[in-house]
């Protein structure tokens, strides 16, 4: 079973791995990882043949929560990896392991201002290149008006 | 002795943002050497409207129309993904008739999306006639969907808990007639297009995507099915009423444009099969769940719901903190990942090939920009 | 009085009448062909086409021409002015001159030169020069692209065209167009040289930049190719030249393969025009059915397939004639 193989592959990294409640959350496996371990997790997932379905961030006011979703073409097993990140901190990039993460990381940088170390081309993706704000931060828009 | 040095100079060509073949406002910055492309960089964001930001300022029901404007061609699938995510968070169960109606309308929408793709793609390749045939078929389809959903394009038909409007007899007879008519039309398309030598020469062995690239770039939808991976969320992670229907997943073998084209055409046929079976087995009963709260206030938690749209996997990730407005909604759209492979595919091709490859990825730029 | 009589009987008068007739024919032909194209396209696409202006949209083209004449002639700043202005004229003139030797019927021919066919082929090559002028002078990358593609395409497809024409000339023994028509009084050459006919039609479609060989004006890739920067009457001249070119190549095909003006009951001129318009209809049919060929495939097709075939046809013709 793929879920067991993934648990085995992630075992050496000593992370919090729990079975997800699929009926409620849509994920079979929930992993919590610190930022410096994310590349190890990604490599393990790639070795099991999983693809990166989504990469996003949630602004929890005092910190960020980066959410990585992995899925697999041959067997159903959705894995969600939560990475708590302090404000003003950066993340290592996954673009060397998953080239598809390139654009997702650019989008997160664009909308949240989170920096990804080692990214080949960390430019804004959706907003104009010379924009100076990050719109999905919770404290955006309260005092600045942008019409 | 004068020594001449031949400096290979490349020049920059800008494809778009206003261009007949980039479907939507997409700009591709090309670095060219003669007619060959050395580098292609898509520049997106011209249509960024801030849907995810809007989600944080609207309640769950108010955000529903936004999901339709993300990908306007297969809006019902996006409605479905969003509604199912909310239903999971609240714990609603959609009654069977509601699920069947959802499947029938979503599959009709899938056909209309593929028909438009077919016509527009062939227009890019220079064939001026198929798009009008496809739009003729689409007119019938849109009239059918207009009857019950009330819109022709950006549908806002599903609700968390079911569907608000039931099918009537005219819709059912109209759909059956449409299914029959489209089947005969597919023979025309096959003869005119799929077996045309010029078309085959333009699309065979062009834009090949390997299975490894599919995993590394996170591609989904007809892109991976064209490369031989039988991944369709309707089969591998069944949702709604799909487990009750008998259909196959068409796959290609090489991963070139011709394979992706054939996959999409066959998918339309499979959609017709699903619609027929759904109409035959349509059960009676309620169409909305009982006890849908007036103010949707899910408990704290998160959910990721994936559905199969015409372009690939649409993932709706909702983080709720127990409020009537969502805390964060992330719309994982298929075209975003699918387009990110373009720079790798475009190296050492001609501009004509780039246009063909871009069309075969089937991007809808507004969903990339959100 | 005497001078007038002398003038009227001379060859000069004949040329003048011919010139007026040709200009009239070219204009009416273009008007008719544009309407025909839109109707053919429409019916193949399951729609009626122009129906409002005149019965079944017959006067639509006149309305369009008047509109084009009223448009502002925009000259972008950085263009090469003399070449930019000359290009539409240079594209139109050779086609007009080709009408000198086309035999509409036994007596309706302006000047029956004994190098007739060579004259036409020589003039049709000048059109390539005009396209290059237009593309280069426009100071626009897309236009230059279109122009270069057009030059490569035209040169590549000229060669099989010339070789197939040579096969016919070998059989007739003369370059005079009226001789070629007269030689087909028993049976048309399309029956004797079907391969040459197919190659000729393919090359003719490519020479006139019609789909599926319309890369120089490929709308979905290059916006409008070599005439991107032309507006108003200048654009109309390019258009006019394209349709008149279609007429000329179809006329040559009729003369070489379909027996010219031969035919029972009806006068020669009517048969000639019927055959020419049938071939034009065929070219229009191609346009609305096929997608566009990719550029390198286009050139490969010309050099690696058409030229060997044309040569083979020529050799077989020569062999058969020698053995007879």
Mean pLDDT rating of chain C:
82
Order of helices and strands of chain B: EEEHHHHHHHHHHHEEEHHHH
Proportion of beta-strand residues of chain C: under 5%
What structural class results from the helix and strand content of chain C? Answer: mainly alpha
- Count helical runs of chain C: 13
Determine Rg of chain B (CA atoms, Å): 22 Å
Which CATH class of chain B? Mainly Alpha
How many strand elements of chain B? Answer: 6
Radius of gyration of chain C: 20 Å
Query: What is the 3D form of chain C?
Result: globular
**Count of helical regions of chain B:** 15
As residue ranges, the low-confidence spans of chain B are: 1-5
Q: Helix content range of the residues of chain C, please? A: over 70%
Shape type of chain B = globular
So what's the oligomer here? heterotrimer
Task: Tell me the CATH superfamily of chain B.
Answer: Cytochrome-c3 Hydrogenase, chain B
Ends distance of chain B? 61 Å
Order of helices and strands of chain C: HHHHHHHHHHHHH
Strands, helices and their partners?
The complex is a heterotrimer of chains A (147), B (370) and C (324).
Chain A: H1 2-10, E1 16-19, H2 22-25, E2 29-32, H3 38-47, E3 50-59, E4 63-72, E5 79-86, E6 90-92, H4 101-112, E7 115-117
Parallel strand pairs in A: 2-5, 6-7
Antiparallel strand pairs in A: 1-2, 3-4, 4-5
Chain B: E1 11-15, E2 27-33, E3 36-43, H1 51-55, H2 64-70, H3 75-90, H4 96-125, H5 130-149, H6 169-194, H7 197-203, H8 211-217, H9 222-226, H10 233-236, H11 257-281, E4 301-308, E5 313-320, E6 328-332, H12 334-339, H13 342-346, H14 351-361, H15 365-369
Antiparallel strand pairs in B: 1-2, 2-3, 4-5, 5-6
Helix pairs in contact in B: 2-3, 3-4, 4-5, 4-11, 4-14, 5-6, 6-11
Chain C: H1 2-9, H2 11-44, H3 60-70, H4 81-98, H5 116-137, H6 141-172, H7 177-182, H8 189-192, H9 194-207, H10 219-222, H11 232-257, H12 268-289, H13 295-323
Helix pairs in contact in C: 2-11, 2-12, 3-11, 4-5, 4-11, 5-6, 6-9, 6-13, 9-11, 9-13, 11-12
Give a quick precis of the structure.
Helices cover 24% and strands 29% of the residues of chain A.
Structure overview:
The complex is a heterotrimer of chains A (147), B (370) and C (324). Chain A has four helices and seven strands, in the order H-E-H-E-H-E-E-E-E-H-E. By secondary structure, chain A is α/β, with parallel strands linked by helices. Chain A has a domain of 87 residues: NADH:ubiquinone oxidoreductase Nqo5 subunit (Beta Polymerase, domain 2, 2-Layer Sandwich), CATH 3.30.460.80. In chain A, the strands form two sheets. In chain A, strands 1-2-5-4-3 form a five-stranded mixed beta sheet, with helices on one face. In chain A, strands 6-7 form a two-stranded parallel sheet. The longest helix of chain A has 12 residues. Chain A is globular. The C terminus of chain A is likely disordered. Chain B is built from 15 helices and six strands. In chain B, helix 4 packs antiparallel against helix 5, helix 4 packs antiparallel against helix 14 and helix 6 packs antiparallel against helix 11. The radius of gyration of chain B is 22 Å and the shape is globular. The N terminus of chain B is likely disordered. Chain C is mainly α and 324 residues long. Chain C has one domain. Chain C is 71% helix and 0% strand. Chains in contact: A-B, B-C. Chains A and B meet through helix 2, strand 3, strand 4 and helix 4 of A and helix 3, helix 8, strand 4, strand 5 and strand 6 of B.
């Amino acid at each position: 079973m793929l879920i067991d193989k993934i648990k085995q592959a992630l075992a050496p990294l000593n992370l919090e791995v729990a079975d997800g409640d699929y009926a409620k959350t849509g994920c079979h496996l929930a992993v919590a990882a610190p930022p410096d371990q994310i590349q190890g997790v990604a490599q393990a997932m790639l070795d099991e043949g999983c693809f990166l379905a989504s990469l996003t961030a949630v602004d929890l006011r005092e910190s960020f929560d980066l959410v990585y979703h992995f899925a697999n073409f041959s067997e159903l097993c959705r894995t969600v990896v939560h990475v708590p990140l302090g404000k003003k901190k950066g993340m290592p990039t996954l673009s060397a392991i998953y080239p598809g993460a390139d654009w997702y990381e650019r989008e997160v940088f664009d909308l949240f201002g989170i920096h990804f170390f080692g990214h080949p081309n960390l430019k804004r993706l959706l907003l104009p290149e010379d924009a100076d704000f990050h719109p999905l931060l919770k404290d955006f828009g309260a005092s600045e008006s942008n019409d | 002795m004068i020594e001449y040095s031949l400096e290979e100079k490349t020049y920059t060509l800008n494809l778009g943002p206003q261009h007949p073949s980039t479907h939507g406002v997409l700009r591709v910055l090309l670095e060219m050497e003669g007619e060959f492309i050395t580098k292609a960089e898509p520049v997106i964001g011209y249509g960024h409207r801030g849907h995810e930001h809007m989600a944080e300022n609207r309640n769950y029901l108010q955000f529903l129309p936004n999901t339709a404007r993300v990908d306007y061609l297969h809006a019902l699938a996006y409605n479905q993904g969003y509604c199912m995510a909310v239903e999971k968070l609240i714990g609603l169960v959609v009654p069977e008739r509601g699920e069947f109606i959802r499947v029938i309308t979503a599959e009709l929408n899938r056909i209309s999306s593929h028909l438009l793709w077919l016509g527009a793609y062939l227009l890019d390749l220079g064939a001026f006639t198929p798009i009008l045939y496809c739009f003729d078929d689409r007119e019938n389809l849109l009239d059918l969907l207009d009857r019950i959903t009330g819109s022709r394009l950006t549908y806002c038909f599903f609700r968390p808990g079911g569907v608000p409007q039931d099918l009537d007899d005219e819709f059912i007879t109209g759909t059956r007639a449409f299914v029959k008519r489209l089947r005969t039309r597919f023979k025309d398309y096959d003869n005119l297009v799929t077996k045309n030598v010029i078309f085959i020469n333009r699309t065979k062995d062009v834009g090949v995507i390997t299975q490894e690239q599919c995993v590394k770039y996170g591609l989904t939808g007809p892109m991976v099915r064209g490369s031989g991976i039988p991944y369709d969320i309707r089969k591998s992670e069944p949702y709604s009423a799909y487990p009750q229907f008998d259909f196959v997943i068409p796959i290609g073998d090489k991963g070139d444009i011709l394979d992706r084209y054939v996959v999409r055409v066959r998918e339309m046929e499979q959609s017709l099969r699903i619609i027929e079976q759904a109409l035959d087995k349509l059960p009676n009963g309620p169409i909305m769940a009982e006890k849908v709260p007036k103010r949707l206030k899910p408990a704290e938690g998160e959910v990721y719901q994936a559905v199969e749209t015409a372009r690939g996997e649409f993932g709706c990730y909702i983080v709720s903190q127990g409020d009537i407005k969502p805390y964060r909604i992330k719309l994982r759209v298929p075209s975003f990942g699918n387009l990110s492979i373009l720079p790798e595919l475009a190296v050492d091709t001609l501009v004509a090939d780039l246009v063909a490859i871009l069309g075969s990825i089937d991007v809808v730029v507004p969903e990339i920009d959100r | 009085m005497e001078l007038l009589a002398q003038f009227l009987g001379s060859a000069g008068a004949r040329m003048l009448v011919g010139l007026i007739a040709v200009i009239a024919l070219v204009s009416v032909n273009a008007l008719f062909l544009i309407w025909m194209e839109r109707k053919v396209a429409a019916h193949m696409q399951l729609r009626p086409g122009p129906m409002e202006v005149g019965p079944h949209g017959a006067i639509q083209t006149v309305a369009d021409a008047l509109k084009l004449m009223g448009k502002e002639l925009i000259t972008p700043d950085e263009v090469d002015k003399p070449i930019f202005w000359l290009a539409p004229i240079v594209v139109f003139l050779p086609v007009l001159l080709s009408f000198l030797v086309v035999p509409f019927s036994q007596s309706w021919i302006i000047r029956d030169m004994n190098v007739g066919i060579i004259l036409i082929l020589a003039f049709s090559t000048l059109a390539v020069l005009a396209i290059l002028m237009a593309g280069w002078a426009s100071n626009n990358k897309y236009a230059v692209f279109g122009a270069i593609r057009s030059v490569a395409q035209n040169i590549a497809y000229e060669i099989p065209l010339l070789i197939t024409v040579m096969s016919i000339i070998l059989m007739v023994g003369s370059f005079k167009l009226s001789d070629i028509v007269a030689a087909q009084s028993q049976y048309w050459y399309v029956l004797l040289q079907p391969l040459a006919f197919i190659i000729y039609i393919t090359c003719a479609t490519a020479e006139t930049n019609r789909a599926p060989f319309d890369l120089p004006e490929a709308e979905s890739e290059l916006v409008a190719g070599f005439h991107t920067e032309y507006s108003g009457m200048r654009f109309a001249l390019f258009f006019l030249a394209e349709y008149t070119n279609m007429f000329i190549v179809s006329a040559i095909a009729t003369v070489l393969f379909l027996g010219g003006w031969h035919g029972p009951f009806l006068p020669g001129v009517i048969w000639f025009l019927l055959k020419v318009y049938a071939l034009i209809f065929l070219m229009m049919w191609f346009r609305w059915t096929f997608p566009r060929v990719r550029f390198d495939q286009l050139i490969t097709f010309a050099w690696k397939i058409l030229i060997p075939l044309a040569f083979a046809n020529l050799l077989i013709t020569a062999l058969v004639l020698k053995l007879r």
